[in-house]
Amino acid sequence: MDLNLKGKTAIISGGNKGLGAASAMALAAEGANVFLTARNADDLQSTADEISAAYGVEVGQLALDITDDGAGEKIVEAALGQFENIDILVNAAGAARGGVFHDIEDQVWRDAFELKFLGAVKLTRALVPHMQARKYGRIVNLIGMFGREPAKQALPASAVNAAFMAVNKGLSQIYGGDGIFVNAVDPGPTRSQRILDLFADMAKVNNTTPKELENGFRQQIPIGRLGELDEVARVVTFLASDASGNVNGTVLAVDGGMTKGLF
Ligand SMILES: NC(=O)c1ccc[n+]([C@@H]2O[C@H](COP(=O)([O-])OP(=O)(O)OC[C@H]3O[C@@H](n4cnc5c(N)ncnc54)[C@H](OP(=O)(O)O)[C@@H]3O)[C@@H](O)[C@H]2O)c1
């Protein structure tokens, strides 16, 4: 299968670790240049170094907090200062704390929306005019299965993901005619620091240990194990590529079959 990614350029938010970094590696492995953004400059530098050394593609980076005003424009400006064109956007910055609904304060809900939902909205909004002018773009949103099947111990994440799915679909309808395809990936529990933190939160709620909680999750996953970062990254890479052809407005689950609903 020809992914046609050689020489293309991707912005990846949350690109310094976890699923964002894994997606950047997978894109770079196919010959795409990558521009990474997240807050931690040291992590950005080490991921950028690792990618350049492994794949010899051009790598750019910008350390910033995506919740800051104007963050979307700053990222796009920096990326276009280094690369002539941006072909791909992977929105992977995100995290939301879990907890008992009654104890979750307003600020936790606000933070959850500010970071993952509004962060992706701001970056997409800033980049889309460039993609429209070129009649080409591939946007891949890392969302999460709790958007389809809310988790009672993680309602802020569930609400953010559901809202993100609505915008993912809406954007695919608005921009499909401009050659901009918008799709999402719904990872099930996938081994990253974020999911380990979430397990720790949920364990407190359930009065158990993170290990016991992980075992409980594994029993709910038909294939009997957590996902690995590169398994999600390969699907992101497919959706970011021309090989995904007629795929627009979908949410692809990469969850070992954990989601029970038909859609
Ligand atoms: N792993 C899973 O099982 C799973 C399942 C479903 C959905 N997801 C979703 O996939 C996405 C990535 O998750 P992950 O598991 O890879 O988590 P992760 O390893 O914690 O990565 C989160 C990324 O977001 C960045 N980030 C956090 N706050 C930021 C801010 N204010 N401004 C800019 N960047 C920020 C982090 O870098 P800095 O801290 O340096 O800023 C990091 O690069 C999230 O939206 C998550 O909800 C993950």
**Bound small-molecule species:** NADP nicotinamide-adenine-dinucleotide phosphate
Shape: globular
Order of strands in the sheet with the most strands? Answer: 3-2-1-4-5-6-7
Please give the CATH architecture.
Answer: 3-Layer(aba) Sandwich
Order of helices and strands: EHEHEHEHEHEHHHE
Q: Would you tell me the structural class of the helices and strands?
A: alpha/beta
Largest sheet: 7 strands, parallel
Q: N- to C-terminal separation?
A: 27 Å
Features of this protein?
263 residues, alpha/beta, Rossmann fold, seven-stranded parallel β-sheet, 8 helices, 7 strands, 14% strand, globular, binds NADP nicotinamide-adenine-dinucleotide phosphate
Structural commentary:
The protein is α/β, with parallel strands linked by helices and 263 residues long. It has one domain: Rossmann fold. It has helices spanning 18-29, 41-55, 71-82, 106-134, 155-175, 193-205, 210-220, 229-240, and strands spanning 9-13, 33-38, 59-63, 88-91, 137-142, 180-187, 251-254. Strands 3-2-1-4-5-6-7 form a seven-stranded parallel β-sheet, sandwiched between helices. NADP nicotinamide-adenine-dinucleotide phosphate (NAP) is lined by residues 14, 16-20, 38-40, 43, 65-67, 92-95, 115-116, 142, 144, 187, 189-190, 192-195.
